[in-house]
Structures are given as structure tokens and as C-alpha cells.
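Give me the fold.
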Amino acid sequence: MKRIYEDLLREHLREERQMAFVAGPRQVGKTTLLQSLLDEKDVTFNWDRPAEREWILKGSDALLEHVGLMDDLRAADAPKPRMAFDEIHKFRHWKRFLKGLFDAVDGRASILVTGSARLNIYKRDGDSLMGRYFLYRMHPLSVGELTQRPRDSEALTAIPSPIDEATFDALMRFGGFPEPFLRASDRFHRRWSELRQEQLFREDLRDLTRVQEIDQLISLSRLLIAQSGQLANFSTLAKQISVSVDTIRRWLDVLESFYFSYRIRPWFKNVSKSLRKQPKIYPTDWSVVTDPGARCECFVAGHLLKAVNYWSDCGLGKFALHYLRDTDQREVDFLIARDGVPWVLVEVKKSAKEPLSPALRYFAQQLNVHHAYQAVLDMDYVEADCFTSTREGIPLRVPLRTLLAQLP
């Protein structure tokens, strides 16, 4: 299955001298993506393979000599070889190593780096990679990725294409991680989910962090799944897990660093009596959420986060995902900000019988956003461009399938 990130990275390798960092959750398809970009003249070093790890530990000069780049006399117009490093974030001094390698290569080869944790996890390692890389955040499969034709790299949205009911249901039910989605088996999905959690908590988190209380961290992860999309109260979570509030904050950072979950913070600029601090927390894998309404909201949150990350990583602007809520209990599920300005509001509803949200109407007019949607799960797909059908400050009821089909 070709991912939308393949064309994006091929463009990067053609046009940019910086390293390409590809970060995303475990088993989202990073290694498969890497293989699609490499051929026989390229080389890969996986930190998890002892023989390849040894070359990394020998340093950049030894590694370049090993791959024949120390005295490279290649013609100026010859294709540049590619060097790929998989899971190198597990090496404590990976930043220092990559900085030295990038400077030594001096444009003679393209460098790709992938990791199942955020590639800035070791902030205490003082070497800066500023200006030496571009980050690409890889997300699970989405409606748009499963239905769209090749994307225009300069366009934010695409003309929608329909998704068949079975594919949509499988995506909602089994999640967007490629293997369980393609297998579409309840048995396999249960086993896969258990194995992924075991690897994440018992291997990655244990080996790469200072967290000792893994069982309590697992308990926190289960609470976050059960409370998906609700306002997070750190004091309540701390009491439930029997740790301090500071520990909860630190553990939430850890879970985000490994792409287990993410926080969406309230938008409060130009909103009177807005909430300012309490985030909502969603798991990256929406299939683990059992409540149908909460799963639908998490499903949409994952699609919107993927879109804002993709647009930002493509250099199309600075995008961020928020929610809206004020002290009068008015709330809209999602707000997309574009270059620091409210751009899109999305309220998620399960049934077309539900009236248009008064809060959506209120905030759409107050913020004068370009697009405001009440996205409805049970509405049939329609051949229409949602982004050319709205007027500023006026909400529009749209099929969820159509709206999501226009996003990356």
C-alpha cells in the first residue's frame, strides 16, 4: 500500500539537502515506507540489529569509509546515494552522531532517519541539529489517504472521492494502523493490540525513559482511553493513580513522546470567558476506545491532527489543532488555527436528526472563521467540495465521510 508520505519524501530527497526525519508511532509503517524509498545502492542501519549498531558506534568517519563515501569521486550529476537510520533514537548520543555525519557527508548523500519516539526525546543531549533536518510526522491511515488520487503538494485540501461502507467501517473499527486494518479480524486486532502495548510499555518505555513504575503508567494509559475526549483533570488522575500531579504531567509527556496519546488544548484568543488550561487527551489508536460516541470523536481528532501535521510539515503554513469551550458551557469539538488565526471549526455529531449546534453557530460568528462544519456520521457521502461551499461565520452541516475525504 502506497502511503501519502512516499511522494512527500521523494520530493524532499530531490530538492533538499537537509536530513529527513520520519517520526511516528510503533507499527505505523515507517520501515515499510523507508524500504519503498531505497534501492540496491542505498544503505540502511537499524539500531536494533547488532552488526549495524556496531558501525554507528564506530562513528561517522568509519561508517562513511564502510559505505565508500570517505573519498567520493562521484560525478556531480550522478544520483546521490541514500543512507537510512532506523530506530536510532535509542542511541543516547544520536544527535551528536547525526550532526557529525551530516557535516561530514556535506551533501554527497541523502540521509533519512526514522524513529518510533519523537526524535527530540533526549533534550538533555546538548548538540543542536538546528537547520540540519526537516521533520515529517507519520500518522495512521485515514479516509483521505485511502480514497484520494495523487495529491497536489501545494494544495491544502483535495476533491473528495467516496469511500465504500466496508472500508469506512473497518477503518473505524480496527484503526488506521496498516496491519490490523488490512486484516480486518477481531481476533487478530485483539492480539495485535496486546502485543503492541507490551512492546511499547515493557520494552520502549522501560529502555528509553527513567520511568520505573511501568504498571502505574499502564493504569494511566487505560484511564486516558476510558476518558478519551474529556477534559483532563490532572489532580483527579493523580489521585486515581496514587502519584503526584507533577508525575502525571511528566508521564503524559512521556506517552506523547512515544505517540501513545496526544493533547488538544483550548483556543482562548478573542474568546470571552474561555477555558485556558485544561486539555483534552486522545489515544493515537482510536480503535481502543470502546464507547461508540467517544470513538467517533477520537477518529475525527486523529484525522484532523494528521492534516495539521501534514500541512505544517509540507511548509504550507503553521497549523494547530484546538477545541473551544467557555465558562457558559458552550463547546465546539475542534478548531484548526492557520498561522495563528482561527480557520476551521468542526463539531462532530452521530445523527443527521440532531439540530445545528448553537455553540457552533455562536463561535463561528464570534471568530468569523472561514469554515464551520457540523460533520455528521450517518449522512451519506455527497459529491461536493466542503471548502468551497461555506461562507465566513455561517455553519454548514456536512457528511463526515465527505469532509474527511478532502483531508490528507
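The chain has a mean pLDDT of 90.
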